[in-house]
Amino acid sequence: MDIRQLEYFLGVASELHFSKAAEKLYVAQPALSRQIQQLENELDVVLFERDKRNVKLTPAGEYLQNEASRILSQLEYVRLRTQLIHRGEEGDLRIAHPGSAVFSVLPTLLSALKLYFPKIRGVLSEVLENKLFESLHNYQVDVGFVREPIPDKYLNSRLIFEECFSLVVPPNHPLTKENFTGLRQVQNESFILPPRHAGSTYHDILLRMCEREGFLPNIIHESNFGTTILKLVEHNLGVSLLPSSYRISSPVNVRFIDLDQLPERTQLSMVWRKDDTNPILHNFLDTASSVDFRYY
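Given the sequence above, the corresponding structure tokens read:
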């Protein structure tokens, strides 16, 4: 039994007329009759009751009609999905990211991906930067977003986004955008910042912003996760310095004061394995190239 025999059988079962079925299948009637006879011989059953005027399905024929229709529909589904996966238009993409990416590039990028490739599913995980590179090398993720790409002969990187920092203060803090003149105004405040080991260059940037104002921050709490820092600030446990994109859709009640007058900027880059030929990844990278990630 093969696919063609099943297609011929379903054609006859639908028409219950060999001549009409042969015409629709673009095959000679004698050839169609031989195929049906071979199928019956292989299965050792009678599929059609035939006389000079009528063709009727037997109970075995009715059963095979239902099953053959299901099988051929499933095969067509498999064929289409196989082509989509081959073209990188369907499947999972494992994405590692810092928390800030959820407030900046990821929603925009995933919206564009859905528009162009609606059957690609993003599997997201918030990963510390030092663990992200390890996850890439261990093939646990396909692409990552990092603040500080490191030279690595096995990885490619691409800068996609740059933004300024903001001073984040509790909602009842006396400082506002209107009366803010410089970071020296918070030199006596308690700070909540990421630890140095989570990204030394990033941490050093934050310290440099304070040092230029003549002080070192009094760090009383540390966290690798921006959403945790925001929650602590909301509860009056200190102030912080975070990428300004955190204020977009921030679920907590805090006040952001932009520091765009300062020269320091933080960047976000994509990193992925150089030898990765996954077509889904490359469709994702192409989509990222088409998106304008300017921050407003």
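The mean pLDDT is 90. Try to locate this feature in the token string yourself.
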